[in-house]
Structures are given as C-alpha cells and as structure tokens.
Amino acid sequence: MNNPDHTIESLSLRIARGETTVRAVTDAALDAAEKLNDTLNAFLQIDRAGATRRADELSAPQSVGDAPRALVGVPIAVKDNICVRGLQASCGSRILANYHPPYDATVIERLSAAGAVIIGKTNCDEFAMGSSNENSAFGPVRNPWDTARVPGGSSGGSAATVAARIVPVALGSETGGSVRQPASLCGIVGVKPTYGRVSRYGLVAFGSSLDQVSVFGLTVRDAAAVLGVIAGRDPHDATTADVPVPDYAAELDTEGARGARIGVPRALFGDGLDDEVRRSVEQSIEAYRDLGAEIVDVELPHAKYSIAVYYIIATAEASANLARFDGVRYGHRTEEARTLSEMYRRTRDEGFGAEVKRRIMLGTYVLSSGYYDAYYRKAQQVRTLIKKDFLDALAQCDAILTPTTPTPAFLLGEKTDDPLAMYLSDIYTCTANLAGIPGIAVPCGLSSTGLPIGFQLLGRHWGEATLFRLAHAYERAQPFTARPPLIATSED
Ligand code: GLN
Questions:
Q1: Is 313 inside any structural domain?
Q2: In terms of CB atoms within 10 Å, which of 115, 225, 274, 300 comes out highest?
Q3: Which residues of 161-170 are buried (b: 16+ CB within 10 A; e: fewer)?
C-alpha cells in the first residue's frame, strides 16, 4: 500500500473529522500539480479557478435529505480525451488543441455527483495511440521514478499524477493496455473494466470495440471506489450493459485469496521478459500460494497473435473514427486551402502527428477491398479464438496472473524509432481488450535500478469484484510502500 496520507480513505476521514477541509485538500493538489508540472509535463491544463469554485460549493452545508456522497472533496485528474464541460479536450493532438467540449462525459457527471473535484486534464499520447507518452503533440510526460524514463502510455499523464501523489486517483482510457501498462511502469494500481461496464459517452473514440474509461489509484480500495461510482448502464452508450454494479469497496475484505484458483500461463513467461520482472512476478505467485490460493497452469494458445490482431483491429477502427476530424466540424482548420479537398488534406496533415497518420494508413489498408479478407476478417476470427482461450482458461480458475509489461520503464527516445518494438510493450495487456475481460495491474516490487514492476490479474466478464478482492489480499500481505525519489525527498 502507498502512503496512506494520500488515499481517498484517509482524505475522507480527515475531512469528516474536521482535521482538514475540502478547500485545503483541493489547494494542496493544485499546488502540487503546478509545482511538479515543469518536471513531469503531466498536465495539459490545470483548472485552479474551476476546482476551487467546486471545492467551495462542496464545503457549503448539505441540504437535508441529500444522499451521502462517496467522493466528497477527492481531487481527481482526467485524461485529455475525456470530455469535461468548459475544459479543453485536446486528446494530445494539435488538431483539437483549442477544442472545448460543451458537455460532460457520463463518467464526469457521475464523479461530480459523487463530490469529486476535477483539478485538470492530463497529457497523453495523441488520440491515446502509444505506449510511452512520446506521441503527445505537447511533449512527453516524464516518469516520477526517473525523469529520464517514460511513464508508459497512452494515459501516462494520469499515471504520473497519481504516482507523484498529486491526486489519489485519476481517469485514463484503455484500448490496449493504456492504464495497466503505465500503472505498472509508475508503481500504482490500474484497473480496466469489462467492455460495456463503463460508459464511453464523452470519451473521444479510438477503437470503439476496445475502448473503456479506466482508473488509476494508489491503492486497490481507491480504484475500486472510483470504478463503483462510474460503472453501470448509461442510456447514452448502447454498449453499456444492464449488469448490477456490486459495492466493490465493501466486498474487499471478504474471503481474501484463500481457496481461490489462480491460473498462470507459463508459455507467456518466455522470450523478451526481463529477468527481474520474471523474478518479481514469480514471487507474487508464491505470495498468493502463501495466502492459500491454489496455483494452476493454464494455456492461452492464441495469445501469441494478440499484438498482430490488436494492431489490425485498433488501426481499422481508428481510421474510421478519426475521419470526423476534417476541419469542418471540430478543432483546427488549415488557413491555406483553395479547394475543399485541399482543406481536408492540409488540415489533417497539419493537425495529426506521425503515429496517428501511420495508424490511419494501416487501418485504411487492412480495410481496403483487396486486403480486407486477408487482414481485417482474419484478425476478427483470431480475436474470437483469443476470447475463447480466455473463457476456457477462466473456467478452470478465478483469475489469470501475468506480468503487466515485459520490462520496467524504458528511457525516453529508446523505442521512438522502432514502432514494432514499441508495440511489443503491449504484449501482456492488449489481450484483455480483445477479449473484453477486466484486468487489474498491481505493483509488486522494484528493479535493481529502483524502477517499479507490476503484475496483472485478468478475470471473467463482469468479475471486477473478484479481481479487486484478490488484488487487495496481495496488497495487504505485500504492501508496496516505496515512493518515487522525486517526491520522497520533498515530503520527508
Ligand atoms: N499502446 C496501445 C496502442 O498504442 C494501447 C493504447 C491504448 O490502450 N489506448 O494502441
């Protein structure tokens, strides 16, 4: 567990006891955000005026009959591809640099109704495409554990704000691991819900059959509390399911890991897995054994195709979703065009960065009539097999445990010239998005160079409560107490 002073639990308790106020908590988060942003570049917008106004409203006495609110005064940071009325939503792209959505995403409405205070919008890879945050048009985010290294991506800004103790929780989005991967590289918890668990209304689309708003927290309990608030059916998103949302946080303390069956797909622990990551994840498996869980071998025979399948389906969907950015409806429009088609072309050329262009080209290629069957259709077929692998494996166990990332955080610039090497850092995470199942990344140790390492648990559709319970049992037994050097010194 991380420093308890920064958890929702302790903030709420201190506010309730009158030891601090919502306004003081908000001011502290804003001060930390401003102070650290020169170093981390984690925020694209810090909303001091809006956040303090909101804090003051929340400090006013509640009306009689008001329902108790779960997140009163909890400062929260939001990835810049999620719409918050009045704030920017650049998605890390020049094409939307000046876009201010006129409405709140459903997740934002729900967080606000629960009393959370949004302190700003976080930096991310352009349109959530990336694994290192180096694809942002507004410069990379830096990892609080080592500012020469990447925080992971694409939700790296949100991960860094939680790791740096600016906020206890933050929202990111996942299409292929963009919350679990940076959570792991930044030493925090990241949870990706079942597809259809959380509304995508107001989340700027990347790969619509894969996208889910996802949550970062310092602790499992905090991530569970936030997911409980944002989850559930939304009439604005027809892909949300009408499945009851359990009280995740309340269920944490039941049963622990005793008697649980944890599946380990050994075949995935092979080439490319860093030795220290392997050792640390093996120790986590032993920790579960000590907690009374039964460890079973499982197989995911088609998982080896996941990167290929993911980068076909995600780019195909992206090429269709990004067609809307044409200089007519939103954002940037070129100043130098004589004809309509020249306006489209120049707008998109000026507005999109290299990775987004690469994905649009790949996506239109795999969807083109001559190649559709060979690539897109085949990828959809293999996607079905990958999902079936998970259903079969999860029929034999309660959760599957794997590393979250093959290596700890890499250096800025290390993979920017080699997109394939970059794509490979998603090897453990993108399978869950393809299968639509939930996953949680949990920090489990430090490398010899002081960088965080994490494992992930993957579970059955709608089975987030089981994942939270198992992750919480581990966290209680093996608390991850290390703090990034950047903030450890300033706090002591
Ligand atoms: N790294 C993956 C990609 O670049 C995942 C992105 C995401 O989950 N948003 O597509």
A1: no
A2: 225
A3: bbbbbbbbbb
